[in-house]
Amino acid sequence: MKTARYLIVLLLEVVMISSCTGFLNIIPEDKIEAEKLFSQPEGYWYALNGVYYKMIQEELYRPVSNSLTAHTLENLIETWSPSKLSVQGKLSKHTYKTSDVDALLGKYFLSYYNLICNLNRILDYIEAKDVLKGNEKNLIKGETLGLRCFLQFDLIRIFGPIPTKIEGGKKYLPYPIKATDKPHLYLGFEEYMNALARDLDEAIFLTQNSDPITKYSLEQLNQPGSIDEIKEIEYYNRNCKLNHYALIALRARVALWKGDRENARKFAMKLIPLQGDAIECIKPEWKLGTTQSLGNVNNTERNNNTLKEEILFGLDLPLFNYENHWESELEGRIFMNKEKVDALYPNKEDKDFRKLLFSSIGNTIYASSNKFWNNQNLQVPLIRLAELYLIMAETSSIREANIYYKAFCESRSKAYQKLTEENRVDILLQEYRKEFIGEGQTFFANKRCGITRPYDCKETYGIAQYVLPIPTRENNI
Amino acid sequence: MVVLLAVILPGLFPMATVDAQTPEKPQLFVTGKVSDSNHKPLVGVRVMIRGEKKGTITNNSGMYKLLIPGKRKEYIVEFKSIGMRSLTRTITGPTTLNVTMIDEVYESEEVIVTGVFNKPKESFTGAAVKISKEQLEKSSNRNILQAISNVDPSFVIVPSNDYGSNPNRLPEIRIRGFSAIPSTDDIDDLKGGQRANLVTPLFILDGFEISLQQMMDLNKDEVESITILKDASSTAMYGSRGANGIVVITSKKPQKGKLKFNYSLNVNPEIPDLSSYHLLNAAEKLELEKAVGLYEKRGDLKEDLILKQIYREKKERVLAGVNTDWLSIPVQVGLGSSHYLGVNGGDEKFRYSLGASYNAIEGAMKGAKRHTLNLNLRLLYITEKFSFNNSVSLSQTESSDGNYGAFSEYAKMNPYYEPYDKNGSIVKYFETVNNHSFAKVQNPLYRTSIGNFNTQKVDNIINNLSVTYKPTSFLNAVANFSFGKVFEKSDFFLSPKDFEYDNTSNILEKGLRDYTGREGINWSFSGTVNYYKNWGKHTVTAGVNYSLYSSTHNLWGISVKGFTGESRNSIYNGHSYKDERPRGSHSKSNTIGVAGSINYVYDNRVFFDGSYRTDGSSSFGKDSRWAPFWSVGFGWNVSNEPFMKHIRKYVPYLRFRYSYGSSGSKNFSPWESVGTYSIETGRLYTGNIVSYMTALENPNLKWQTTFQHNGGLEISLFDGWVSISANAYHKLTKDAITDTSLRLSSGWEHYKGNYGDILNQGYDIDCSVFLYQNREKDASFNLRLGTSHNKNKMVKLSQYMKDRMAQRMASDFERYNLRYVYEEGHSVDAIFAVRTYGIDPSTGKVIYRYKDDSQSFLYDINQRVPIGDRLPKIDMRISTSFNYKRLSGYAGFSLKLGGYTNNDTYKTKVENAILTENVDHRILEHRWRKPGDETIFYGLHEVNNFITDRYIQQENSLVCHNISISYDCTHKWIKKIGLEGLYLNGSIGNVFYISTIKQERGLSYPYAIEPSFGLSCTF
Question: Complex ipTM, two decimals?
Answer without folding.
Answer: 0.89
